[in-house]
Amino acid sequence: MAEAQQDWNAMPDEDFRQIFRTWADANCPAELRFMRKQRPLYEEVKVWYQALADKGWLSPLWPQEYGGMGLNPAKHMIYVEEWARLGCPRIPDHGIGLTGPLLLHYGSEEQKQFFLPKILSGEHIWCQGYSEPGSGSDLASMRTTAVRDGDDYIINGQKIWTTLAHCANWILLLVRTDKEAAKPQQGISVLLAPLDLPGVTVRPIPNLREEADFCEVFFDNVRVPVSALVGEENKGWTLAKTVLSHERIFLGAPTRPEYALARLQALAEARGAFSDPAFVSRFAKLRLDVYDLGSAFERFARVLRQGGELGADVSVLKLFNTELYQRITEEMLEILGEEARFNDDIEAGDIGIDAMNLYLDSRAPAIFGGSNEIQRNILAKAVLRLPG
Ligand SMILES: Cc1cc2nc3c(=O)[nH]c(=O)nc-3n(C[C@H](O)[C@H](O)[C@H](O)COP(=O)(O)OP(=O)(O)OC[C@H]3O[C@@H](n4cnc5c(N)ncnc54)[C@H](O)[C@@H]3O)c2cc1C
């Protein structure tokens, strides 16, 4: 049972920071800090998930009446910063960050009462079924259908790159409910479906590290009741996009580049790379870029703190962040050459550095959350006003 909440937003920022940091430091087990895996399974981080749930600190943004902390953007930034600073692991968070906010905005009272407590308790672990083969950047072209049959929908089709579907028990699905709509964005709906229904097949896809962190999910005549629909039929596109938009800034948080730069420095010291003036020059540039990224992130965060809305220019943050992260990890491989291998910690002073895994990890953020090419298109059209 979660503890009673207080009005965190009325508290001075530094007091809140201190309270959250002290508690998280005492309650997040040391062996879960700075995990190699970016997306651990629920079972691997259950202790941390449950500690947050018991404290009532699992859902920083949900209103307190639904079991959240009700944090404003400023306090949320502090929560995220301290989480990252302590190296606490990511938890399976599609329920907290995606399904929960979607239901809070658009769900019926019945859906809120049924689903929200089960997300908070860890009983329901969610995954996000948006992308399909051939429909990633061009998501509106998706083809998985849901056809009304009496009081049910019958779902047929395939989703892909569904992160953590193999440890989830529910999926948030985008489906096509009207094939005749004038535009592809029309005729899409949002459905909630358990993954243990007859006709659902979840097939993990091993990544280059030979870990499965995403899956293919197949639907073969899967029946769900019409009560699985969120919001209005055929209006799902707007729902899905609204909920994702507020998360864009967090894809630009400087945490990963900062973490990688500290490891590059340790590696360079251990291998004597600082005796090479060319390396020193490249390292200085990377360090300055990390500082710049921090300043840029702070500028966007300040807009949110002051209650403002982010514009399309926030795309620049994601671009700068993900490409900088890649440049830092590439520099690690330059130092190590053939020594860099999968799942192999390289000794550097008193720490082990998993350079190859960091390098591979740095490829993914340039693809998910809207690929970098798509971010460039957004900047070209909405910020620079270049012709289409
Ligand atoms: C680690 C990871 C986790 C993910 N988890 C999930 C998940 O949980 N649920 C989910 O639904 N999806 C998930 N995805 C899928 C992700 O949303 C898609 O990979 C992404 O939207 C890109 O789509 P795509 O892979 O089909 O590539 P495509 O859209 O086919 O793009 C291929 C290439 O073409 C470029 N391109 C495409 N269109 C344009 C254009 N108009 N202009 C210029 N260049 C273009 C792209 O930038 C890319 O380089 C995940 C992806 C990754 C990498």
Automatic annotation (TrEMBL):
Record-linked Gene3D superfamilies: Acyl-CoA dehydrogenase/oxidase, N-terminal domain (1.10.540.10), Butyryl-CoA Dehydrogenase, subunit A, domain 2 (2.40.110.10), Butyryl-CoA Dehydrogenase, subunit A, domain 3 (1.20.140.10)
Record domain Acyl-CoA dehydrogenase/oxidase C-terminal: where: 234-384
A GO cellular-component term linked to this record: plasma membrane
Species per Swiss-Prot/TrEMBL record: Falsigemmobacter intermedius
Cofactor: FAD
UniProt xrefs under Pfam families: Acyl-CoA_dh_1 (PF00441), Acyl-CoA_dh_M (PF02770), Acyl-CoA_dh_N (PF02771)
Any one GO molecular function term: flavin adenine dinucleotide binding
Acyl-CoA oxidase/dehydrogenase middle domain segment(s): 127-222
UniProt-recorded name of the protein: Acyl-CoA dehydrogenase
Family: Belongs to the acyl-CoA dehydrogenase family.
Residue span(s) of domain Acyl-CoA dehydrogenase/oxidase N-terminal: 14-123
Alphabetical keyword list: FAD, Flavoprotein, Oxidoreductase
Cross-referenced InterPro entries: Acyl-CoA_Oxase/DH_mid-dom, Acyl-CoA_Oxase/DH_mid-dom_sf, AcylCo_DH-like_C, AcylCo_DH/oxidase_C, AcylCoA_DH/ox_N, AcylCoA_DH/ox_N_sf, AcylCoA_DH/oxidase_NM_dom_sf, Mycobact_Acyl-CoA_DH
Entry coiled-coil feature ranges: none
